[in-house]
Amino acid sequence: MNKEELVKTIRTIPDYPKKGILFYDVTTLFKDPKALHEAGEVLYQMYRDKGITKVVGIESRGFILGAILAERLGAGFIMARKPGKLPAVTIEVSYEKEYGTDTIQIHKDAIGEEDVVLLHDDLLATGGTMKAACQMVQSMRPRKVYVNFLIELKALEGRKVFGNDVELDTVLAL
């Protein structure tokens, strides 16, 4: 299966969650065993030689391929979640979204200075959530931080919020 075939497994839903938005639904990719395997394999090939020790999945779709990738890389998996979802002591970052403020948290003891961290989420649109997650992880002073998305919506230019100091890669550009 190639990248064009992966794109074909993604359902598009017009006017969701509001009028004028074209929503890219990755649940159809996830339910297709060949597509799910291929997405995991592509990600593994991208990061297999980077020394990744922790993969951070962004709530909630980032948990799926993030966990698969962590297992394949022999790395630990960390969940970045909305407030109130993690049981131990957390650190958090709040950030502005187009319709208000949101917050993301991880456990305070999740990442150490010896770690090489890959942050993963399903979709790069405006980049706000991942930028906040990246700042939070960087505050823990790991050796290196990588950022990855399954899909990048090029027209929204979310990549620009990261500047040149973050190594950011995507699997599919739409």
Regions with little confidence, pLDDT below 50 for 5+ residues: none
Could you tell me the radius of gyration in angstroms? 16 Å
SSE run: HEEHHEHEEEEHEE
Biggest β-sheet strands, sense, barrel: 5 strands, parallel
Please state the overall shape, judged from the principal axes of the Cα atoms.
globular
Could you report the average pLDDT, rounded to the nearest whole number? 95
Helix-residue proportion = 25-40%
Number of helices: 5
Q: Helices and strands: which structural class? A: alpha/beta
Strand fraction: 25-35%
Q: How many β-strands, per DSSP?
A: 9
The strand line-up of the biggest sheet is 4-3-7-8-9
End-to-end gap? 18 Å
Describe this structure in words.
With 174 residues, the protein is of the alpha/beta class. Helix content is 28%, strand content 34%. The strands form 3 sheets. Strands 4-3-7-8-9 form a 5-stranded parallel β-sheet, with helices on both faces. Strands 1-2 form a two-stranded antiparallel ribbon. The radius of gyration is 16 Å and the shape is globular. The model has no long low-confidence stretch (mean pLDDT 95).
